[in-house]
């Protein structure tokens, strides 16, 4: 096992550091000049569809929350994003004009597989995004796209998540391209630079290790974000609770005043993500509301945003806001990882959790 860890203390850490490489692998051959190439889907006539469902569980669900927003914006097709265990029991409105996309690292999650079968029965065209070659989901779906993350051993998903984000963004832009929508070619260009940016963020690990010290003696942590940043904070909070057992919740920043702010007191830690320029100023003002009530804030944002009174601010590289979802995952993974290490938790095998949930 030590040999498999390649000199890292844990599989989770090894997998965090593999991200530049596996993102590169997931992009390989899929961007040619400024065109997205997904030959696996060339037989689909996207004009036949009037709505899209995204379905997944756990971390993969958080990836779909980002991917579905991007697809809706680029293609103008209405999207629905659902946790698989809800989808299968809620009589989803599906017919032959529905495209249903299922995301699963293992390709074996029972609820996601059952949801896929239901969508097929109701006539949808199904696409699986999977990591494990030949997994059940990849055999059952009409079409399959693979993330190229390689084997993910740690229970807490890291590299599978970021490669899912990359592939979902590629998919959104691919569909837009086929439907002849206006496309942000700069974003497609920037996708190729993401592995290098991820590498740069990995080199800042000591900063996030310091942030983790703020969480060591706390029972609760609060994550806030808006728009795509909300998907990111949901995943950040899940990562923290999975590996460090710190109770963490993620809130749409605009909802703070409708309840969660009642919990903020002297010494609370708020982890805020504000990478979306059209809405960052609003999140900044929510941050001030928590500071006024005694919170210590960790802020992950981009240059150009006006930041006041936040000592612990990390600036992400300057790329398209859509791609920040990939980059901001890295600091959030590190914060969870180091918090778990400081607390002496078994990072790779958190209590009560399984890598793949093959029972309902
Ligand atoms: C389990 C794992 C999570 C994972 C989820 C969905 O809960 O612990 O890390 O996100 O299942 O798994 P899948 O293989 O379908 O992506």
TrEMBL record:
Recorded GO CC terms: cytosol
Main location: cytoplasm
EC assignment: 2.6.1.16
Domain SIS: 37-181, 211-350
UniProt KW keywords: Aminotransferase, Cytoplasm, Glutamine amidotransferase, Repeat, Transferase
Subcellular location: Cytoplasm
Catalytic activity: D-fructose 6-phosphate + L-glutamine = D-glucosamine 6-phosphate + L-glutamate
Signal peptide: none
Gene Ontology terms for molecular function: carbohydrate derivative binding; glutamine-fructose-6-phosphate transaminase (isomerizing) activity
GO biological process: one example: fructose 6-phosphate metabolic process
Source species, domain of life: Bacteria
Catalytic residues identified in the record: 355
Role according to the record: Catalyzes the first step in hexosamine metabolism, converting fructose-6P into glucosamine-6P using glutamine as a nitrogen source.
Complex and partners: Homodimer.
Protein name: Glutamine--fructose-6-phosphate aminotransferase [isomerizing]
Organism listed in the record: Coprobacillus cateniformis
Gene: glmS
Residues of the full protein shown: 241 to 600 of 600
